[in-house]
Design brief:
The complex is a heterodimer of chains A (249) and B (248). Chain A has 249 residues and is mainly α. Chain A is built from ten helices and no strands. The longest helix of chain A has 35 residues. The model of chain A has no long low-confidence stretch (mean pLDDT 88). Chain B is of the alpha/beta class and 248 residues long. The longest helix of chain B is centred in the last third of the chain and has 17 residues. The chains are: A mainly alpha (249), B alpha/beta (248).
Chain lengths: 249, 248
Amino acid sequence: MKKRKLHQVFRLLLVFFCMNVVWYIAYLLMNHPILPSPLVVYQAMGELGGRDLALNVGYSLMRIFAGVLLALLIGLMIGLLMGRSATWNKLLDPVVYLTYPVPKIALLPVVMLFFGLGETSKILMIMLILLFQIIISVRDGVKSIPDNTYDVLTSLGAGSAQKFWNVTLPGALSVILSTIRISLGTAISVLFFTEIYGTDHGMGFFIMDAWLRLDYPEMYAGIMLFSLVGFVLFLLVDLLDYKFMKWRN
Amino acid sequence: MKDLEVEYKSGQLALGRMNFTLPEHGIYTVIGPSGSGKSTLLRAIAGLLPAYQGELLFNGKSLRDKATLVGLVPQNYGLLPWKTVQANIRMAMKIAHRSTESKAKQEEGITRWLTAMGIPELAERYPLSLSGGQQQRVAIARAFAILPTILLLDEPFSALDAITREALQQLFLDSWLANPATALFVTHDVEEAILLGQKIIIMPSSKQDSPVFVDNETLFGMQHGEKRDSDEFFEQMKRIRKVMQEKW
């Protein structure tokens, strides 16, 4: 088990190293300041101030967490309602159906108009991106729990809260986690968009700022760091999956 | 002597008008052809049917009263796959007894029942990693652990192989003797009905007929191992087959 884990980490490192080699070859071929060598980029990364870096990464993470949390709260509530009650499903299904295909990123100017350029509009954008996917997956996840799963609890006289915590939530959790994993990528891209206006902090700001100053090594360093943040978030979801989905094996 | 009074009347086709009373503390096996409503009867008593006509009474009080605890053992074992064996039992105890029982007492109960079922080593395992027989042992342990007043078993052993089934029948009888609740045991196996029941309820295939009650006290008093070879067993078998030929 442990050996396999180590193997996996080793493979990941190898792939990472190969990608850097490809990058280095491209740098040699291009020989132009818009593509610096990986070594220069890593050096620039090392020179970034720790406090400044923590502030930028912290702001980005805070926005993502707030957006995901909000989307989860609202999405869970609506999804559960739709999954458990046929009436609500009939009522809300057309609403979700009609709004789902609207490209949420196109709503960015609207959200900015309504909520200004501050934190609210950034967090709301991330929430909007995730919300509909979570609603749909929670609803389908809840619906896919067989009715007889509730039988023993019902016969014991369990209340709806007990049924929710013991059956509905854990039953739908695996779908919720995979949805978060898929939508996290989108959320990070949207985060970048929202961080290029109205803020002095965040990874998006950092990258665009370096770009405007023509400091390409620092710009690439920012992109690398941004990717690292995304990678860590994926690992976090994997960790949650491992912790709560043990029963599947 | 208190009496269990079950009156079930339904205008629906799912189950014809039934009206019967059973004494408390006993095992009553229910057999019948498919579609005769034996599972419907059980689901109604378990409170899983939202609407039925008539009344279900236990000691003169409604079955839906909070004081009557129903332990259910469904055919598919009804274990929650995302909870370990002990968490499944713990959850049932918590729901059944609210918080009247202390934690230590609960844990002790879990261990005692898992030991009684011969599976104390499976406490930390998840249901999906267990065999059908093991899962059913857990389900029975859970049903007994809440100390139910009524025990409902819906073809609990029908998916198991013959040897596992016999072992579990024995385990079930032993556990029941230690905690004699009022048990209703639905089965499609005539032999099983005779081996376990104190009374055998034969459901007719026609919804208009009323069920036939066959007394099984003599066999019920015997040692479980001796039942199968006794003359009474064959007599009872013949008697029930005759009823089946008439009613099915």
